[in-house]
Structure to design on (217 residues):
């Protein structure tokens, strides 16, 4: 069974949703660096305040800060994981390879969720998020409005501080310049581990593709 998984993909490609579904179906812990950073921010910790300076502008948080929270997470949670939103730079990918090599726990699978820009923009402008449990919802699909109770935990739904068109432009630029090279890195160094899925399909269909990939020995 594959139990060390990296999900890559642009904003709103469904990484969080699919990571949650894999986590529930296969009992593998899901870690979203974006959610970890938002939680630090909510708790108003020094790390959260520093991260907010970058996230609110749609920029990546510096590698050393992200590596600190990922290292802490791995120390607390052990050897299996689904990373969503990490690694996002080649520096982070190299850090992860080295850290896993030291632990003798190699990655089992890297999945790239691919989505065209028009669909990314549509999804982000329609997205509502829960700051408490981290769930996200398409407002139109779920018939939800700003301030409604989160269907999962009943906290009020908000628009994320980076789900506006200015920050999204920046996030797309950052994705092209800093995260697409991570895909090239894995293509070069671990081509057998990398799978691509067309994320324009509905959540069930994308999950079905993931289950097939996860089932392959
Ligand atoms: P999305 O996938 O929609 O961009 P995330 O929740 O994954 O949303 O990330 C939100 C923000 O958190 C990013 O725009 C970035 O500022 C920060 N962030 C998340 N993960 C990382 C990471 N691995 N490295 C640097 N910054 C990160």
């Amino acid at each position: 069974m594959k139990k060390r998984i990296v999900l890559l993909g642009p904003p709103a490609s469904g990484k969080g949703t699919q990571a949650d579904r894999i986590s529930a179906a296969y009992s593998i812990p899901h870690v979203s660096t974006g959610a970890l950073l938002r939680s630090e921010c909510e708790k108003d910790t020094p790390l959260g305040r520093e991260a907010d300076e970058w996230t609110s502008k749609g920029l990546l948080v510096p590698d050393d800060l992200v590596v600190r929270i990922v290292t802490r997470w791995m120390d607390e949670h052990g050897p299996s994981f689904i990373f969503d939103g990490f690694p996002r730079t080649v520096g982070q990918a190299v850090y992860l390879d080295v850290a896993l090599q030291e632990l003798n726990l190699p990655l089992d699978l890297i999945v790239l969720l691919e989505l065209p820009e028009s669909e990314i923009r549509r999804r982000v402008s329609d997205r509502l998020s829960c700051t408490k449990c981290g769930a996200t919802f398409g407002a139109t699909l779920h018939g939800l409005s700003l301030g409604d109770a989160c269907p999962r935990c009943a906290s009020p739904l908000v628009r994320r501080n980076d789900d506006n068109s200015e920050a999204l432009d920046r996030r797309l630029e950052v994705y092209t310049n800093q995260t697409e090279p991570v895909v090239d890195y894995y293509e070069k160094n671990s081509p057998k581990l990398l799978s691509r899925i067309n994320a324009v399909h509905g959540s069930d269909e994308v999950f079905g593709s993931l289950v097939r990939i996860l089932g392959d020995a």
In short: The domain at 4-116+167-214 is CATH 3.40.50.300 (Rossmann fold). The first strand starts at residue 4 and ends at 8.
